[in-house]
Amino acid sequence: MSTHNVGIAGLGVVGGGVASILEANREAIKRRTGADIVVTAAAEKDAQRAAEVKLSHGRVVADASALLADDLVHTVVEVIGGTGFAREFVLKAIAAGKNVVTANKALLAAHWAEIMNAARARGVSIGFEASTAGGIPVIRTLREAYVGDNLSRIVGILNGTSNYILSRMTLEKSAFADALADAQAKGYAEADPALDVSGADSAHKIAILARLAFGEDFPIEDVYCEGISSVEQLDVSYALDLGYRVKLLAVAKRRDESVELRVHPCLVKENHPLAHVDGPFNSVFIEGQYVGDTMLYGQGAGRWPSASAVVADLIDVATGRAKTVALRRGEGRLSVRPMRDVEARYYIRFQAVDRPGVLAKISGVLGANDISIASAIQRESRTGRSVPVVILTYPAREGAVQQALAEIATLDVITGKSVLLREEE
């Protein structure tokens, strides 16, 4: 049995967890898989982090480039983050003939083709299970279990921070700012939560999943992205009254020869399994022609779930099961459908003056844009000034809805900015 030597670049939350698992489970992994995986080197600039990791058979250095020059290292683990130095490091590792395992979704979302093509040309493997949904084996499921199926839709709750915030707003009636502060206090949100609450983190992940599901390299720039910072408690409450919950969903949906790629807050019916995925948990709902509907659920981030996914990739590399995914781009087989052409049911809340004829004016504009109303709620105002008017539509085209909203905003009965949420079935 040969030893497979690993170098870890970054001993933070995930990297430190990988080192700990490999140290604690070396013999168990060897018995189960026949792979003897040893951390022979690690790189970490932070002296305190470096001191916290104890390697039985390796050394800790400050400069990650030392891992690339070490001929004993077969595979490097990149858990540095970002797309600058990380990209340079990964490409140099490939050029040096080393396999790479990474948890870096932003790097893969932006530089997929460059990295995968370089790895294929050099004959090395790229593992990236931890880049999407942490400890949930969705990458492995798409690459292996469903590779022979024709997938039509992936809908996922892919960001635990946003899901925790929306869960608090739903279950405890918290305002967005209070729910965010609570998420930060519990360690579910960073001091700067922009990447999570803006939807960008989920966009990176759905771009990766769509590539695997549909076999084509879609640019990250083509993913429509809308975050949760504008979601108000009032709309969460209305949604509950109407039989929905509000979730930040990442959607990849095939429609004939085009694919919808979008991230935004959605209304999800109470009886859908995704509606009750609460707290910091993630879930991915997959539809296939033959497999039907399946759902994966678990912890989508954190030290141990993500580290466990990295270790699984290392085992695949060490046992020869790993492979590189190089996909086509720009051949015209599948295009990304513009957001204006997406069709959905819509929840729209207007703030309007409380007088007769308001609903008629609004519905007139909607009808002129081929938008049919499924139901409407107009509650009596207690102040005598303005009142929310909530409308649910039948399926309509996004472009038509946006045009109608622009026209309705000019009406003399509208007193504030409208709110729009899309339903995802």
Molecular structure report:
The protein is α/β, with parallel strands linked by helices and 425 residues long. The protein folds into three domains: 129 residues, Rossmann fold; 161 residues, 2-Layer Sandwich (Dihydrodipicolinate Reductase, domain 2), CATH 3.30.360.10; 84 residues, ACT domain (Alpha-Beta Plaits), CATH 3.30.70.260. Helices cover 37% and strands 26% of the residues. It contains 15 helices and 19 strands. The strands form three sheets. Strands 7, 8, 9, 10, 11, 12, 13, 15, 16, 17 and 19 form an eleven-stranded mixed beta sheet that branches. A six-stranded parallel beta sheet has the order 3-2-1-4-5-6, sandwiched between helices. α6 links the parallel β5 and β6. α14 packs antiparallel against α15. The longest helix has 18 residues. It is elongated. The protein starts with a strand and ends with a strand. The model has no long low-confidence stretch (mean pLDDT 94).
Write the layout of secondary structure elements.
Blueprint: E1 3-9, H1 13-24, H2 26-33, E2 36-43, H3 47-52, E3 59-61, H4 65-69, E4 75-78, H5 85-95, E5 99-102, H6 105-122, E6 126-127, H7 138-145, E7 151-157, H8 160-171, H9 176-185, H10 194-197, H11 200-214, E8 224-225, H12 233-241, E9 244-255, E10 258-269, E11 281-288, E12 292-299, H13 303-319, E13 335-336, E14 343-344, E15 346-353, H14 358-368, E16 373-378, E17 386-393, E18 396-397, H15 398-408, E19 419-423
Helix pairs in contact: 1-13, 5-6, 6-11, 8-9, 14-15
In short:
The protein has 425 residues and is of the alpha/beta class. The chain has helices at residues 13-24, 26-33, 47-52, 65-69, 85-95, 105-122, 138-145, 160-171, 176-185, 194-197, 200-214, 233-241, 303-319, 358-368, 398-408; strands at 3-9, 36-43, 59-61, 75-78, 99-102, 126-127, 151-157, 224-225, 244-255, 258-269, 281-288, 292-299, 335-336, 343-344, 346-353, 373-378, 386-393, 396-397, 419-423. The chain folds into three domains: 3-131, Rossmann fold, CATH 3.40.50.720; 139-299, Dihydrodipicolinate Reductase, domain 2; 340-423, ACT domain (Alpha-Beta Plaits, 2-Layer Sandwich).
